[in-house]
Amino acid sequence: MINIVNTTCYGKVTFSVDSDLTDVQCLIMDDNFEGEIFITKFEKLASNSNYWIKVDSTVTPHLKNTYIKITDSNNNIYTQYFEFPSNVLGNYSLIGNSCVAWRTYEVSNTFYNSPTISNLILDDEEYVRFCEHIETYLKADMILGDSKGNINYKKQTGSVRVVNTEANITNDYPISHHLDVEIHWIHNRPRKLEFNRGVYNFKEVLSERIPNDDFINKWKRRVERGKNTEKICLWSASEMFNAHGEWERKQLIDRFKKLPSRSIFLTERKNEEFEDDLHIVKYVPEWEGNHQEQRDGWGGIVWNNQQENAYRFFEIIKDKFL
Question: What class has domain 2-82?
Answer without folding.
Answer: mainly beta
